[in-house]
Amino acid sequence: MTEFHADDYGLFPRQSQRILDCCLHGALNGTSVMPNSPYLSACMDMLREQNAQLQLSVHLNLMEGRCLAPKEELPLLVDGDGIFRVSFVRLLFAHLSPQKDQYRTQLKKELHAQIQALLPYLEREGLPLRLDGHAHWHMLPVVFDALMELIHEERLPVTYIRIPSEPISLYLRHFLRIFPFHPINIVKTGLLRILSRRALRRHGPALSRLERKVFLGVLFSGNFSYEKFRLILKDAEDCAAARGMGLELLAHPGAVYEPEDIEKLTNKDDLAFLTAPGRRVEAEAFQRLAEETAAV
């Protein structure tokens, strides 16, 4: 099965409606939910009211908004108001820090709180517990190790964790036709492949019991257009079939346009990304894919 997936559902109601529209009028069939959003309940009710048939994942988030665990217990992750202020670089090397045990303890508290926030909605809809991470921070070594410890200790019924290791061969096959993409995405794609190999090496037995999917989306992150979807879709589906896996194609169609919502964003990278023109491009891609399928 090919999963056309959107991250960041639930951040704001109108932003979430744009994602829902990609399901109701497009090819979108999966989304990841921001569990620490103050609008979580309202956005989850929107899913039911509009009868949106979507696979859902917990979008573990350590960079946008406020924590769900008591802020006093997370001094390495949040500021005095409970807003996430830990940097990517600090978390990337936290497993080498003398404070690595404190990081892991605090991360487990927050990750547990976020999973528990969404779990009742998943159970209400009869959906499995699937996990991924905002900006893929769940793959950072100290975060991934804390997550796997948490799953084991709490016996969480997780069925899928996104492992964002993109098959570079698919891109090389169409290299001259996939421009433009942001050069920084080459770095991200390479780093995530390294982190994915580490996760599989360190936690292979536990991960082998979970569903695995071929994943694509980081290299095109910010501008996953219809043309790029179509260019790689057949090869990606063939790759997934050869590996005996499903396929997850990730985009971010949930634009934030409303000034009152923009003011509430706490992370400057999210501010730039969620208000960029590429959000509209990716939303249009889902709609065109659905129109193409209907015409066949």
Describe the protein:
With 296 residues, this protein is an alpha/beta fold. The chain has a single domain, classed as Alpha-Beta Barrel (TIM Barrel). The chain has helices at 13-24, 40-49, 88-92, 100-125, 141-154, 168-173, 183-207, 226-243, 259-262, 268-274, 278-295; strands at 2-9, 30-33, 55-60, 129-133, 158-161, 213-216, 246-251. Strands 5-4-3-2-1-7-6 form a 7-stranded parallel sheet. Helix 1 links the parallel strand 1 and strand 2 (30-33). It is globular. The model has no long low-confidence stretch (mean pLDDT 94).
Give the tags.
alpha/beta, 296 residues, 7 strands, 11 helices, globular, TIM Barrel, 7-stranded parallel sheet
How are helices and strands ordered from N to C?
EHEHEHHEHEHHEHEHHH
Under the CATH scheme, the architecture is Alpha-Beta Barrel
Classified in CATH, the superfamily is: Glycoside hydrolase/deacetylase
Q: What is the fold-level CATH name, i.e. the topology?
A: TIM Barrel
Largest sheet: 7 strands, parallel
Cα-to-Cα separation, first versus last residue: 18 Å
| Count, helices | 11
Give the mean pLDDT. 94
Number of strands: 7
Strand arrangement, major sheet? 5-4-3-2-1-7-6
> What fraction, in percent, of the residue positions are helical?
40-55%
Query: What does the radius of gyration come to?
Result: 18 Å
Poorly predicted segments: none
Q: In what range is the share of β-strand residues? A: 5-15%
Q: Specify the CATH class.
A: Alpha Beta
Shape: globular
Overall number of domains: 1
* Protein structure class: alpha/beta
